[in-house]
Amino acid sequence: MLANSQGIENVHAHATQGAAPVLSLEGISKSFPGVKALSEVALELYPGEVTALVGENGAGKSTIVKVLTGIYQPDGGRISINGQPVSFPTAQDAGKAGVTAIHQETVLFDDLSVAENIFIGHAPKTRFGLIDRAEMLRKSKDLLDRIGAQIDPKVTLKDLGIANKHLVAIARALSVDAKIVIMDEPTASLSHKEIEETYELVERLKAEGKAILFISHKFDEIFRIADRFTVFRDGQMVGAGKISDVTEQDLVRLMVGRSVDQVFPERNSNPGEEVFKVAGYCHPTEFEDIGFSLRRGEILGFYGLVGAGRSEVMQALFGVTKPSKGAIRIDGEIAVIRSPDEAISHGIVYVPEDRGRQGAIKGLPIFQNVSLPSLKKTSKNGFLRLAEEFKLARDYTQRLDLRAAALDQDIGELSGGNQQKVVIAKWLATQPRVIILDEPTKGIDIGSKAAVHEFMAELAAEGLAVIMVSSEIPEILGMSDRVIVMREGRIAAEFEGGDLTPEHLVRAAAGISEVKS
Amino acid sequence: MSLASGTSQVSDRQIPDRLRSPLQRFLASWELLLLGVAVAVFIINSFASPYFLDPWNLSDATFNFTEKALIAFAMALLIISGEIDLSVASIIALASTAMGFAVQLGADTSILVLIGLGVGLACGAFNGFLVTGFGLPSIVVTIGTMSLFRGISYIVLGDKAYTGYPSDFAFFGQGYVWWVISFELVLFAVMAILFAILLHRTNFGRAVYVIGNNPVGALFSGIQVSRVKFILFLLTGVMSGVAAICLTSRLGATRPSIAFGWELEVVTMVVLGGISILGGSGTIPGVVIAAFVMGMVTFGFGLLNVPGIVMSIFIGLLLIAVIALPRIARQLLARRRT
Amino acid sequence: MIQSLIKSREGILAAAILALLLVISTRFPAFAAPKNLASVFNDTAPLIILALGQMAVILTRCIDLSVAANLALTGMVVAMLNTAMPDLPVPVILLIAIGLGTLMGLVNGLLVWKLDIPPIVVTLGTMTIYRGIIFVISGGEWINAHEMSPAFKAFPREVILGLPVLSWMAILVVVGFIILVGRSPLGRAFYAVGGNPHAAVYTGINVGRTQCAAFILSGALAGLTGYLWVARYAVAYVDIAGGFELEVVAACVIGGISIAGGIGSVGGALLGALFLGIVKNALPVVNISPFWQLAISGSAIIIAVAFNATSNRTKGRVILKKAEHAL
Fold first, then answer.
1. Which among C183, C198, C317 is the nearest to A107, CB-wise?
2. How far is C142 from chain B (nearest CA, A)?
3. What's the helix, strand, coil split of chain B in %, to 5?
4. Chains that touch B (3 or more CB pairs under 8 A)
5. Cα–Cα distance, A124 to C296 (Å, whole number)
6. Cβ contacts (< 8 Å) between C315 and chain A: which residues?
7. CB of A163 within 8 A of CB of A194?
8. For chain C, where are the E strands, in sequence order?
């Protein structure tokens, strides 16, 4: 019966290809206190086609996903499916209408079985209204077979690896027999092989006539699997069309609203003496044999795929986690770092990737965020001196061109970019020798991004040693003097000067051996 | 385009320190509202009973809140940091039992005070060790120690009671420093000032707020989160010990059911004082006013011959209403706006 | 591997209970006699029923501290009804008890769901309010055995197939819970909401409503127990079952129900309650004062939660290939 209905849908899909969209959004707006996340955006999805949704972080992509899945209610606009106007007051309604989403961080349940993860919310039931376990297991097995996943449906989800969890999420999407599948950065944390398997799956879903919304930051995959594109910028839809009609450059220009080569500041790099040296740093499960050195005025880039262990290394250098082996030298002297406290007193500071959780202290005013690691300086005998704190905050936030109403404003009320400026100011106020920036421009607007880049260049020129972890190749290339590539917890390669090419970085990160072309 | 306009006007724009003056902040604060309530309760009470305005009656009224408030000050810091201690009343029971036991062995007042403080400190250290050493949720740990501490009192005392405290021990709970000003009231005032300074004027107090708002961020900013939390549990334990000394001295006897249910009243006092139960915000002056409000209300009910357990309905309602009303107001406002 | 470890948690507890029984029976063989064990079970029945209700609440990342007060208030109301209308049949009493308990659970649930107030605050508050109301309606008076009708008192003691109705009620609730928690969409939603509330929203589960349902369930069972308790002990007063909520939470924690939500089983809650019940009944037999009870359950909570935490400690990310193989 199942196969039968799909057959029909298939035929239908091919008959209407390129004609009417299965889902269309018109004039969708959504505001949050202080932010207009979406303003009058439009989006169309076609059966049997992949539409890539591209845009910078903060462009409104995740908001539109939440609108489509019934998590957010739009303030205005129309959603229609097959020409019929619909609304999704709850996530369940969106599911019933045939919309399903496979999320960035696989949002599933670690303590439930694979079968339950696939069927929670719509499990097959016996005539007493209870869950029919046997049927659920059987159907799960079918679905997993269909996507070629070798997973036992009875296993608890937490025993699976990340790639298999992803397959479970996809099986879940298929289980509701959705017409519209939203894939939110499905390949972000997958290995090369798993990514290929994901592409195959997308092809299969296309063949089944599903309309796919594919959100991605990777241009190569967009051009490989997408049929159409829609570009969002600052909550607005700024372009849409067929992929075959555009180039990578066109998309980038639409995304950023200007051409890319203007982004990075000019730098006259002139590194001084060595200040920081790491040797033989190991951790039981996260990384192994990490060693490098860093000079004054140098920007050292750390590139790698998500999950390659870069942040883990940085957090160990900062004393958050304990290494099992290895040594740090600062100006040639051995430094023992067992806690962030000790790292800070050695002049090593860390601007974390997870700004909301690890960087900004939301709920506290800007000036207290800035003065936090410098309280020993601003206070006297353990007693606070607010005037000193305000002075410190003013000095450092001004250098970063912070936009805020007042220094006693809650940092949580600022935009992502301005929050990041406060976090950077907070660390600069400690007058560090080494600053580690972990994905410093992730999720911040273009204006702030440029300000952060310019400021990094300035810091290096003043003689600070900078480590920058980034997954964005243009940023890595545009900012770094030298780049270390990590893969699976180890240093895979180091590039400098003329060797610093996108191709080298990608190959080293993915573990593909050099091929002469 | 935003970039161009952004960088051109960098230079002499300055962000003001404060958006609103401290006075403006105070005028819009929970503390002021609470102060209004306190005044209202005071006025209502003075009309409701002719005995209320008598200085000695008023002085008696303060005993309704001084001992609980001593714990509430420390609990306020603990709750701001995102933890809670439900075992405080049981610490009183255990400390009081230990003091009673020592009396049977002939201990004098100074030893009793040391024992009271020491037991409080030890209990606080035990809670703190379980929470910070093992990373256990404080709510479950202190539900456990709540049974354990009082359970030990029951094992020691059963259905008996310790009495026979030395006569000079009575000063802590029954003594007056000057005219109608009791020792407890003076202790309350001193502790209120000390805790206000600790929370609002020191680096330690700042760390408490930071941890309550974002424990991970605090760790990443170089704050020794576990150490601060451990100290807060110690403080709460010691203040429970202080309250045990005062209460035991006032009652002149120890039963294992002593201070039963006080943890609820202490938490209510803290929450009524404007401390967020989710941590991160609130002030000591708020708790001080809340203590007065609760004391006055209890005393007023007492003058009207309302039994204690009915007052507990009021306290339960107060606890929920204090949190619920602002949320309801916010929901109504949000609805009107859309 | 981890799964089998969690599965054996119930095994460890069952073994501990058996060992406890064994140790007691070597000195006091009469304790392990089937007849005595049945009476221990009957004694523990209220704790079992309430622990299961509490389990539902804890699974959804909440806690219900008002169960004992709910039990006492319901018990007082039905006892007063019985003295006023001695002819009211037991089924009607049962319905009223469950209905009243449900209502009190609903109050808790709505405050948590609609106003988003932390459950600990809500139930600490309603706990005192419900207790206070008992005083208000009863005027602090006791209702004693002679004021209750024979039928009212007899119901929980009625013996069917060798076991009193009270025991059967507990068995019924256990069976009902096995089905509810294991097989019904609502039961699975409890796990989903507690395990990952964020993801639950995406799968179309309303987190607040599910939590409210758990509170209603807990309240209904407290109401049912309220009648059974008052009828069995043939007395109702303000302080009955005082502090019992802690014993209920203790049973859950000992039974391995994670206070962080999403993890726990009916078997665990049952065994946790039985463990406490056996300890309580064994104390007088082995000549230890019943005043030890409180300290023992307190220690049991602490030990159980510490044990849970060490066995469930989250490991860091595994990036190194060789570390992956070593695991």
1. C198
2. 15
3. 75, 0, 25
4. A, C
5. 45
6. 285
7. yes
8. 159-160, 163-164
Provide CB contacts within 8 A for A70, sequence distance 6+: A88, A89, A90, A91, A92, A93, A94, A95, A99, C204
Q: Is C260 within 8 Å of chain A by CB?
A: no
Please report where in the chains the tokens 């659920």 appear, as a residue: A136
Q: How far is B237 from chain C (nearest CA, A)?
A: 18
Question: CA distances (Å), C220 to each of C170, C224, C227, in order?
Answer: 14, 6, 11
pTM of the predicted model, to two decimals?
Answer: 0.85
Query: How far is B113 from B108, CA to CA, in rounded Å?
Result: 9
Rg (CA), chain C: 21
Structure tokens at C187: 């039961």
517 residues of chain A, pLDDT tens digit each: 333 433 333 333 343 445 688 999 999 998 876 567 888 999 999 999 999 998 876 678 888 988 998 888 999 899 999 989 999 888 888 888 888 888 755 568 888 899 999 998 888 888 888 999 999 999 999 999 888 888 899 998 888 877 788 888 888 888 887 889 998 877 766 666 778 888 888 888 888 888 999 988 777 788 899 999 999 987 889 989 999 998 877 887 787 665 444 467 877 777 889 999 999 999 988 899 999 999 999 999 999 877 788 999 999 999 999 899 999 999 999 999 999 999 999 999 999 988 888 999 999 999 999 999 999 999 999 999 999 999 999 999 988 888 888 899 999 888 778 899 999 999 999 999 999 999 998 767 667 788 889 889 989 998 999 999 988 778 888 899 999 999 889 999 999 988 888 788 878 887 765 544 4
Are A211 and A18 in contact by the 8 Å Cβ rule? The answer is: no
Q: Which DSSP symbol is given to C86? A: T
Q: Verify whether the Cβ–Cβ distance A364 to B213 is below 8 Å.
A: yes
What separation in angstroms does the CA of B25 have from each of A389, B31, B102, B325? 19, 10, 50, 21
**For residue A400, which phi and psi values (nearest 5 degrees)?**
-95, 5
The pair of three-digit structure tokens given for residue B25, joined into one six-digit string: 């902040």
The rounded distance, in Å, linking the Cα atoms of A186 and A214 is 8
DSSP string, A193-250: HHHHHHHHHHHHHHHTT-EEEEE-S-HHHHHHH-SEEEEEETTEEEEEEEGGG--HHH
CA of B100 to nearest chain C CA: how many angstroms apart?
A: 18
Q: How many CA atoms lie within 13 A of B109 on its CB side?
A: 11
Sole residue written with tokens 């709910």: C70
Tell which residue, A349, A385, A394, has the closest CA to residue A367. A394
What lies within 8 Å, CB to CB, of A328 at 6+ separation is A276, A277, A278, A279, A281, A317, A334, A335, A336, A337
Contact A367, B17 (CB under 8 A): yes
Main-chain dihedrals φ then ψ at residue A285, nearest 5 degrees: -120, -15
**A132: exposed, middle or buried (C-beta count within 10 Å: 0-12, 13-18, 19+)?**
middle
**Residue type (1 letter), A150:** Q
Domains of chain C, first to last: 2-326 (1.10.3470)
Domains of chain A: 1-98+178-257 (3.40.50.300), 108-176 (no CATH), 272-347+434-517 (3.40.50.300), 361-431 (no CATH)
Which one of B6, B15, B201 has the shortest CB-CB distance to A447?
B6
* C-alpha angle A14-A15-A19 in degrees, rounded to nearest 5: 100
Measured between CB atoms, does C181 come within 8 Å of chain A?
no
Specify which residues A490 forms β-bridges with. Answer: A487
Name chain C contacts of B147, Cβ cutoff 8 Å: 246, 250, 294-295, 297-298, 301
Q: DSSP assignment, residue B254?
A: B
